[in-house]
Design goal:
Blueprint (H helix, E strand, L loop, with lengths): L1 E4 L10 H13 L6 E4 L9 H9 L2 E8 L5 E8 L9 E5 L1 H4 L17 H12 L4 E5 L10 H6 L3 E3 L18 E3 L11 E5 L12 H5 L7 H18 L16 H13 L2 E3 L1 H9 L1 H5 L4 E9 L8 H10 L5 E8 L5 H4 L4 E4 L7 H6 L1 H35 L2
Parallel strand pairs: 1-2, 1-11, 5-6, 6-9, 9-10, 11-12, 12-13
Antiparallel strand pairs: 3-4, 4-5, 7-8
Amino acid sequence: MKIVIAPDSFKESLSAMQVAEAIEQGLKQVFPDADYRKVPMADGGEGTVQAMVDATGGEIIHLNVRGPLGNAIPSFYGILGATTSGTKTAVIEMAAASGLHLVARNERNPLITSSYGTGELIIDALNRGIRHIIIGLGGSATNDAGAGMLKALGFSLLNHVGTAIDDGGAGLIDLATIDDTQCHPHLKDCQFDIACDVDNPLCGPKGASAIFGPQKGATSEMVTQLDGALNHFAKIAHPHWNNDRLHHLPGAGAAGGMGFAIVAFLKGQLSPGVTLVANAVGLADTCKGATLVITGEGRIDGQTVFGKTPMGVLQTAQQYHVPVIGIAGCLGDNADAMIKQGMTAIFPIIPGIATLDQVLSQAAINLTNTSANIAALMKLSMSLNHDISGDKNLKQAKP
């Protein structure tokens, strides 16, 4: 019996690999000799680097970069081990260098925050010979349309007098020219894949500034200023790709416009995060011939069907007609939407009333106990099916 365990992390509690190990421990109490395949998963957000490094036997690279406000901060990215493509791949979470969590709530100001540190992570990967980079967008503190990242990569963003524009979204309004003659020489050789799970354009009422600006500290006046600055940036940047509609591309507004910059200047491709992760770690091949796939995340609800890890795992397993069971820390409203999509069953792990601290600290043991119960039900089902089949055979054998 082959069982694939492909969960996301349980945020603030367990990494995806730790979740997979706890599930395996519970299942082994009933099926000690099964063939278990652990495939840590993610959807492009927090935990993606760790999950993909764990799944492929890669390594985490630690370095200091420039944070959203310009101060030096510790950051990281991953270099994957064995992948289905056979190429050397780096995976970067934008939030690790330019994340909202890196800025104190009273200091959040998307007029000045910069994505420069994300560019520094890219530079380090390029200097190590990496020519395929996966970037997870989300959780950013910035609204600079990736201008900071472009500066780090060697692009010169200049005003009318030929000096560099200020960092942050507000500085874009002064942009007059973009010079790429000094950018990193290996950028043109690098393939960029972007994990993006939003379809917002760069500008307008559904754009980066209007939709995501307020959570980054923008007032209504700032939103108007930022939207104008991003629109101006797009107009100046048009000659670089000869397409004056790119800022309308779904996903261009992701991460404060970072999606726009990577597509326009780095020729990146936007894809759902869980799809990129699944392809990189070879989930489909692992699911072939499996008896069961188990997935999960901290919370399963009605939003899970929109590109979250359990939905991506379900869709992959369905290609091979393998049943899928979901395990979650808790179930939210409309969690049964996953059942309607074809998931066999969903199990929450919290056994009783508890504080949040207790829930987080007891996640591993609760996962193990729930998994053991799932395995016990599986064994009972197998026994009942055998008995029913045997009974039918006996009846058929009667003269």
